[in-house]
Amino acid sequence: MIGPEDDRRALTEARLARSRQELFDLLETQATGIDPSGAAVFPRSRTMRMLLSPPGLGAAAAICGGLLFSRPALAARLLRMVPAGAVARTLFKRLFKADASTDVR
Fold first, then answer.
1. Within the chain, how many helices (H) and strands (E) appear?
2. Taking a C-beta distance cutoff of 8 angstroms, is the pair 34, 40 a contact?
3. Could you give the CA distance from residue 103 to residue 79 in angstroms, rounded to a whole number?
4. pTM of the model
5. 41 near 29, Cβ under 8 Å?
6. What angle separates helix 72-81 from helix 54-70, to the nearest 10 degrees?
7. In terms of C-beta density within 10 A (0-12 exposed, 13-18 middle, 19 or more buried), how is residue 73 classed?
């Protein structure tokens, strides 16, 4: 005999299965760097995504500032290894993208 409680239980189990699948898809996307539509997500690395987020950039800037104050010679040596053209290009893109998004009236 199937009653209303069995119907509710089946509905609840179906919702749980759907939410589990959504979580699995979300975590799989983050792990592989590919979204459900098949397009690649840039950057694929969790570390690079964290560093490129606003809190990550702040943390990286704090670490660089601390290194600059504590060991300036090492900071200068490390700075020479950074590709300046790529960094400048990225900064200009961010600057112009931020400038285009702000509408001053």
1. 5, 0
2. yes
3. 35
4. 0.39
5. yes
6. 130
7. exposed
Phi, psi of 86 (to 5 degrees): -65, -40
Report how far residue 29's alpha carbon sits from residue 20's, in angstroms, rounded to the nearest whole number.
14
pLDDT (tens digit per residue) in 72-91: 998 888 888 888 888 788 87
How many whole angstroms separate alpha carbon 45 and alpha carbon 49? 6
Count, residues in the chain: 105
**In this structure, which amino acid lies at residue 97?**
K
d(CA 60, CA 78): 14
